[in-house]
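Pipeline run #58 for the internal structure catalog. This entry was flagged by the ingest filter as a single-chain record with no existing model, so it goes straight to prediction. Upstream metadata was stripped on purpose; only the residue string is passed forward. Reviewer on rotation: M.T. Logging verbosity set to normal.
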Amino acid sequence: MKKKLIIGITGSIAAFKSVQLISDLSKENYEIDVLMTPSAAKFVTPLSIQALTKRKVYIDVFDDDPGTITHVDIVKNADAFIVVPASATTMAKLAYGIADNMLTAAFLAATCPKLIAPAMNVHMYENNATQRNIDTLKNDGVLFIEPGTGLLACGDVGKGKLADYNSIKLMIEYALHSHPLKGKRVLISAGPTRESMDPVRFISNHSTGKMGYAIARAAFLLGADVTLAHGPVSLKDIPGVTMKPFISANDLFELMKEESKKADYIIMSAAVGDYRPQDVAKEKIKKNDDCLHVEFIKNPDILSYLCANRTNQQIICGFAMETNDLIAHAKEKLLRKNADMIVANSLRTKGAGFATDTNVATLITKENTEDLPMMSKEDLGLVILDRLMSLKED
């Protein structure tokens, strides 16, 4: 079933970006109604918006359809109301409950989750009056999508750029989700480790971090306070998630030891190298002999440490990537490390493995083995968290 979004566009120079935003969200199976302030209509024509939504765009508070009170009726079945971009003027009106156009009147009448994505000059944004209005709206339960920093349309540099599409979409999804993990702390590791051989070379693996990032995103949507320890990956930071970078297995070990002290759930999805060179050359190793002999030593077993030093309330999940005997190896890992759950997947299975957007996993606990069909890593992240919450309830 389609979710109904109300999108309010205000008189910000970033209003033109709302056209692409609405186009993209329309492809995400949302039903969209658009309200514009009179100033917004000077930047973007209502006709261009109507062409995308196939629905009437409302501007004037008295622009009611026959037999309706539009600013009240339009929000009755709405799932979320987002003002994007939000100007300083409109935020001031919303903070004080001023309903002098269709957008502000409908916002006041709406009882659904409300979001605001500001976009304006950096000095307007940082002005004490604007910040007071933002605080007032936040205290009223309005969700804010933080603006970006960079070169603004006016030529100034600073905070005030409209957030990107992925950030806006994430916050809309957050608003539409229930939050069973609210008040809980989730610690996740993702990506590869790198072990230096010399100043030029390192030993690593093919992990891209996509699975761990997907779990972190899912945990955020479910309301958790999320910390993501990530190796060297090319993925963008997740808004609302505390990002903690690491390079080597020892880096990750120290990071997890510290962060795990306050975590309710720990999910070790990082691909941690089992060994590292015993000695790291201070200078680049030159190509001389036909063979290069390097002695490796074991890296710390981070999952075993976390399980052995857990608090009574912690739930800990590990991952097992195998090329053969997947279930047997994963069950042995679960028992040997005393984890609560192992997410097992095979590099040989189509749709699973490194660098894919999908995964095929088996969830293994001491009491149960659950084979899952191929699904997106985002959906798998939600399933993993659901099963871990069930373990905590038990």
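catalog note: The domain at 3-176 is CATH 3.40.50.1950 (Rossmann fold).
catalog note: Residues 184 and 224 are 5 Å apart (CA to CA).
status: ready for reviewer M.T.
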